[in-house]
Specification:
Length: 382
C-alpha cells in the first residue's frame, strides 16, 4: 500500500510540474522578436579620424499565411561619436514610437528571402548601415566559412560559424585589399543572426582603415527547438534545418553531382550547401573568389533536384531530427511554483495518512476496550 501511494504521489508531482512548466514557457508561435545591441567603429589613422556608433534595435518576425513573413526592424536608440583630431562631436537619437518611418523598416519576405538575408546578416544590418540587402548577401558569399556545430545562445539553438576573407580588387591606382575575420551565430529555425563579431582592414598600400562590428542579442523569444541535419563530404558540407514540423530528406549517389531534397513535413525548412576551398560552383563565368554557399528553401511537401557542380565522393543520406536545448538559467518562478505544488501534495498526503492513522488508532482502542469489557463480563459471570 505504501509503495502504491508513493508512486501516485510522484506521478502527481511530475504531471503537475510538467503542466506548470508548459504554462510558464508558453509562447505565441506566430510572432517572434530579437532585441539587439550593435556597436561599430571606423578608424582612419591617415586622417586622424574615428567614428563610433552604438544602437539598440528590435526585429520582429510575424508569420503570415502563404509561407510569408512580415519582417520589421525598429531602431530604438542611436548614439554616434566622431573624432577628428582634437575635435569631438556626439549625437544621440531616441524615436518616440515604432510608427516613426525614419527609424522603422517593414519588409514582407517569403521564406527563401528570409533565409538568404538572415544567413548573410543583411536584414538586421540594413537600416543601420544603409547597405543594399542583395549586395550584402552576395558579398558574404565570398567568405571562407568554417562550421563549428550547434551551441546554445540566449536559450536558442544556434549554428556557429567562423569566417575569414582575403580579397584584392583593382581600385583607381592602387589595388584595394580587404582582410576580414570573425564569427557569427544564427538560429537554427529562421537563420536569423543572434551574434556577429567582425574585424576588418581595408588598405591600398598607403591607407589602412579598420572596421570593427559587434552585434549581440539582449533577449529573444525565438523557438528553443527545431530540426537539424548535417553531413559532409570531401568538398561540401550540407546543413539542413527549419521549423519544428519541417522534415528534410537529402539523398545523393557517389559519382553523381545531383542531390534530391524533399520536405516531408508541414512547415518550411532549408538546406545550406557550403563549398570548401577546393570545390567549384556552377557559375557560367569565372568568379574569383568563388561563391562559398547556397541557401535552398523548401516549402512543405516540396521536392527539388540540385546540381552541386561537383562529383560526390560518397553516398549522401541526410535526415533532419528534432533538437531541443534547455536553458541552464535558473527560473526561480518555475521552481517556486513547483515547490508550492510539491508542498501542497505533501500536505494533502500527510493529512490523509494522519486522518487514516487516527481512524485506525480509534478503531484499535475501541476494539481493545470491547475486548476488556468482554473479559470483565466473563470474569463476573464466572
Amino acid at each position: 500500500m505504501n509503495k502504491a501511494c508513493s508512486v501516485i504521489f510522484l506521478s502527481l508531482l511530475l504531471i503537475l510540474g510538467s503542466l506548470y512548466s508548459s504554462i510558464v514557457h508558453a509562447v505565441n508561435s506566430s510572432d517572434y522578436y530579437i532585441k539587439y545591441s550593435l556597436e561599430m567603429s571606423i578608424y582612419n589613422p591617415s586622417m586622424n579620424m574615428k567614428y563610433e556608433l552604438k544602437a539598440l534595435l528590435t526585429t520582429k518576425l510575424s508569420l503570415l499565411e502563404n509561407n510569408t513573413v512580415k519582417y520589421t526592424v525598429f531602431i530604438e536608440r542611436i548614439e554616434s561619436k566622431e573624432i577628428r583630431g582634437n575635435q569631438t562631436s556626439t549625437s544621440t537619437t531616441t524615436p518616440f514610437n515604432e510608427n516613426d518611418s525614419n527609424f522603422t523598416i517593414n519588409i514582407h519576405y517569403d521564406y527563401e528571402q528570409l533565409y538568404e538575408t538572415g544567413f548573410s546578416n543583411g536584414g538586421v544590418l540594413y537600416p543601420i548601415l544603409g547597405t543594399n540587402l542583395y549586395n550584402t548577401a552576395l558579398f558574404t558569399k565570398f567568405y571562407n566559412m568554417s562550421y563549428q556545430g550547434i551551441e546554445r545562445y540566449k536559450d536558442a539553438p544556434v549554428h556557429v560559424f567562423k569566417y575569414k576573407l582575403e580579397y584584392t580588387i583593382p581600385y583607381i591606382i592602387y589595388n584595394l585589399t580587404i582582410l576580414s575575420e570573425g564569427e557569427y551565430y544564427i538560429d537554427t529555425v529562421f537563420l536569423q543572426p543572434l551574434y556577429y563579431r567582425s574585424e576588418s582592414v581595408l588598405s591600398n598600400g598607403n591607407i589602412n582603415i579598420t572596421l570593427s562590428l559587434l552585434l549581440e542579442t539582449i533577449e529573444t523569444n525565438l523557438p528553443q527547438n527545431g530540426v537539424y541535419g548535417y553531413e559532409k563530404t570531401e568538398n561540401i558540407e550540407l546543413l539542413a534545418g527549419g521549423l519544428p514540423n519541417a522534415n528534410i530528406l537529402v539523398n545523393g549517389n557517389k559519382g553523381s553531382s545531383m542531390i534530391n531534397i524533399t520536405n516531408m513535413g508541414t512547415e518550411p525548412g532549408y538546406l545550406i550547401i557550403m563549398y570548401k576551398s577546393s570545390a567549384k560552383t556552377l557559375a557560367t563565368t569565372p568568379i574569383i573568389p568563388q561563391e562559398k554557399y547556397r541557401v535552398i528553401y523548401l516549402a512543405p511537401a516540396d521536392t527539388k533536384n540540385i546540381d552541386l557542380g561537383i562529383i560526390l565522393d560518397k553516398d549522401i543520406s541526410l535526415k533532419t531530427s528534432t533538437i531541443s536545448i534547455v536553458s541552464n538559467n535558473v527560473n526561480w518562478l518555475e521552481i517556486g511554483g513547483l515547490a508550492i505544488i510539491a508542498v501542497a501534495i505533501v500536505s494533502i498526503t500527510y493529512a490523509y495518512y494522519k486522518k487514516k492513522s487516527n481512524i485506525n488508532t480509534n478503531k484499535n482502542v475501541e476494539e481493545h476496550l470491547q475486548e476488556e469489557t468482554s473479559v470483565n463480563e466473563n470474569n463476573t459471570a464466572y
